[in-house]
Write a structure and sequence with these properties.
Glycosyltransferase; about 375 residues; two-stranded antiparallel sheet; 12 helices; globular; two-stranded antiparallel ribbon; 10 strands; mainly alpha
Length: about 375
């Protein structure tokens, strides 16, 4: 049963459908933002690339909106066009719409996210997922093969594309590991009886044991290994949604969210109530005459929606609506990557991933 929604929420739902349509290309690619549209600010960095992660969240949101023409086209694009996938079974950092790699760094969460998106789309009819059996097997095999028992055998990039995890340091990013665990679990849920399944299960179990070690000093750390990055990162919310590795009321998660709110939620000024990615974030996505400015990050709407999802799962709808409304009070239907406390820095807007998280949060608040 849906709740009564206000005009601002209705307007943003309709804008989300428009953004999804604009970011979906004829060949099945789903770009992170479409700078060819009139609403796109010319001063913002262009995001006319496919990040499999962003597109996977959009597929999940499209399921919730009842948009059925998006997902299969994107899954086929991944199988048929993503450069290197056929050989490695892995998705890398980002791609041009034609499928060529724009950057070829390994990001483990990209592959896990695609597997999750397939399972989510066919959750009520898992046999339907067998249309993409080849891709599921390749992706799960790729993750299991790249895992050496403690870390990945390839240098791994984090989801924010700002830090690397090195094999010799036996290092993993918390969010990335959670994405891969859930992706592998989705694979053997969709294809439970196959020769490769035990390899997938074994890798997922080893990753889970490793992930438990990431809880240190009262919260989940950003990365864990011989050298540990103990800073808090808002992406740790992914351990609850969408990857469901831990319950929302698990004591480890509760204390991690307390740290996220203490350190990353803006406490005063024009951005009070907004959420930052991690401490000392500098990325702003602002271009001027071809130069990236990096004058300091703003608050990220998708993280507000992520905290809204978390508190909705905890049953605290008042708190969930607070994070949700913070964004809608500062936007006009189109949701940017970031919101700044000045009129100089110009964000990427609208961002597909921001709209996807808005849709998911709307569902948890029963506005859909």
């Amino acid at each position: 049963m849906s709740r009564t929604i206000n005009s601002r929420t209705k307007r943003t739902i309709e804008a989300s459908k428009e953004v999804f349509a604009d970011c979906r290309l004829e060949n099945g690619a789903m770009v992170a933002a479409n700078p060819t549209r009139e609403y796109y600010p010319k001063e913002a960095k262009h995001y006319f690339y496919v990040w499999p992660r962003d597109a996977s969240y959009a597929c999940i949101a499209a399921d919730l909106l009842g948009l059925e023409s998006f997902q299969e086209g994107f899954f086929r694009w991944c199988l048929q066009r993503a450069e290197g996938f056929g050989d490695s079974g892995l998705f890398f950092e980002k791609y041009y719409p034609n499928g060529l790699k724009a950057l070829g760094r390994f990001q483990p969460d990209q592959t896990g996210s695609v597997l999750l998106a397939i399972e989510h789309h066919y959750r009520d009819n898992l046999e339907g997922a067998l249309e993409f059996e080849e891709m599921i097997k390749k992706a799960a095999d790729g993750l299991a093969r790249a895992w050496n028992g403690k870390s990945f055998s390839l240098v791994a990039n984090d989801l924010w594309e700002e830090r690397l995890a090195f094999t010799d340091l036996e290092e993993n990013f918390t969010y990335s590991l959670a994405a891969c665990i859930r992706g592998l679990e989705c694979a053997f849920e969709m294809i439970p009886d196959c020769d490769e399944c035990e390899n997938w299960r074994g890798a997922a179990e080893e990753m889970r044991m490793r992930l438990d070690q990431h809880f240190s000093g009262g919260h989940f750390v950003r990365s864990y290994g011989k050298l540990t990055d103990r800073r808090i990162d808002a992406s740790a919310l992914g351990l609850v949604y969408p990857f469901a590795i831990y319950e929302a009321d698990d004591p480890w998660i509760v204390s991690t969210v307390e740290e996220i709110e203490r350190r990353l939620v803006v406490l005063d000024g024009p951005l009070k109530g907004g959420v930052r990615r991690y401490e000392h974030d500098e990325y702003d996505g602002w271009m001027y005459e071809g130069v990236h400015r990096r004058k300091g990050a703003g608050a990220w709407p998708l993280l507000n929606f992520w905290l809204s999802i978390y508190w909705a799962q905890r049953g605290d709808l008042k708190r969930a609506r607070g994070y949700y409304d913070w964004v809608l009070e500062r936007t006009d239907g189109y949701i940017p990557e970031q919101i700044f406390d000045n009129h100089l820095q110009v964000p990427v807007s609208p961002l597909l991933w921001s709209h996807a998280m808005f849709v998911v949060a709307s569902r948890f608040l029963r506005y859909l």
